[in-house]
Specification:
Blueprint (H helix, E strand, L loop, with lengths): L6 E8 L13 H6 L1 E4 H5 L8 H12 L1 E10 L8 H18 L4 E6 L11 H13 L5 E5 L7 H6 L2 E4 L8 H16 L5 E7 L16 H12 L4 E7 L13 E7 L2 H17 L11 H10 L5 E5 L14 H8 L5 E3 L1 E2 L1 H10 L4 E6 L11 E11 L2 E3 L12 E3 L3 E6 L2 E6 L9 H4 L10 E4 L6 H4 L5 E5 L34 E4 L6
Parallel strand pairs: 1-3, 1-4, 4-5, 5-6, 10-19, 10-20, 11-18, 11-19, 12-18
Antiparallel strand pairs: 2-3, 7-9, 7-21, 8-9, 13-14, 14-17, 15-16, 17-18
Amino acid sequence: MKKIKTYNIGFACFLHEAHSFSNIPTTLDRFREHHFALGAGEMRKTAGTSTEMAGVWDIAPRLGLQLHPIFHAFPVPGAPLTAKTFNFFCDKLVKGLRAAAPLDGILLNLHGAMIAENALDAEGEFLRIARKIVGPKIPIVATLDCHANVSELMVDMADALIPYDTNPHVDCYARGVQAARLLRAILDGKAKPCMVLAKPPLIPVPQKQNTGQSPMKDVHALAFKLEKLPGVINVGVALGYAYSDVPEAGMSIIAITQNDPKLARTIAEKVARKAWTVRRGFIPDFPKPAEAVAMAIRESKGPVILVETGDNVGAGSAADATALLAELLRQKARDAVVMMRDVEAVNACFKAGIGATVRTTVGGKTDAFHGKPVKVTGRVRLLSDGRYVNRGPMHCMEEGVEWQMGRCAVLECGGVTIPLTEFRVYPRNVMQLKSLGIQPEYCKIIVIKAAHSFRPSYEPIAAKIIEVDTPGLTPTDLSSLPFRNIKRRLFPLHPDATLKSMIISERSGGCD
């Protein structure tokens, strides 16, 4: 058997989705609460999971890519990183790349919507630092979350950017494999990627970004069709993250061809124009809390999933909005479950103990966006350390990964059960409730503080899913947020936006 040539590759995973209007600081402690690992030993623990990182780990040995892992860091979305935190990771990158030199290439797993106090375009700066270390000739390939706000700097500093194709994100592993394969092809001289970025004047809210439904389904269908053309390496659609107040905010089309800038530009523009033609489909029309709860109660079968779109934890919100909780209590709902982050209430339950009756207030304690605290009286049914392992249909970085919710308490308040957590946690897997003794398939109503990430796990058991227009930090109406840094007029934030403001950017070093 012929021995495969080996290449030395710097490897890091740095993911964060920054909500510009959140008051929950993203410090190093927020990373440690979630996913944080330095060096190969800890980073290898992601092998066997559904992450893009695992995809890289699994395929690298077969491709002859000798990985030099630097760090893996991924917190729950929140406010921009503090300058100290961002500088910490940039310093780790510099030291890690220098220690692994000489390198033949770099593989990065990035988000694309990261902000730091000292860098509005944090991924662009992170890529710029990597490029400065290795120089212009060493290839850099990066995966992106499909909620990336892609900047021209990011395109210029990387040889290839590959966003997820799905939302909910069920193709992370495949994108990691794809990125590694492309890097190997570049190193072997078999691929010379030419990358063109098109940014139509669109800023769709997360609630309308499901790639399995129109309008995103239609945009991706065209992208996948064009991706099959000869000479095309990849056509990625980054949906954008609407709650980042940055100049790069909004949708991006990234077309990568085999050294053919004209083809890349044609494809990027064509997909961007398609997105523009279906733009009105990005405007949500959801019921308000009172109507939605009444609809759920009237349903003969459960579980009915009430999606609290204004408190989308995966988009950086507080996880303690009270609109649906208050309405469920007011309408005397039965067999309902609402998970809330509330450290004070958790402490009260632990102090009282299992079986005790607790009178406390729940939720509405983080900011002014998510409603007022709700007075409740309930019995403490369970206390837990909040650790669990996700199983079943997965979104993104979950299959087989242990997660932690901090200390948890389950408070029974009549017909409404309130699982209380110390940490903000993505509500996107049924194991989260099962670990607390709640069988979601037998509940009548379950409130999910998300947009789409819960669907792979909850859709198989749901009798009905109702998206609800609730107050919070992740609203469906972007005009309620005080944007200052967006320079273009973007639909639907600006209803009078026109296609004339579309941005086209070509990677200067990638095309002849």
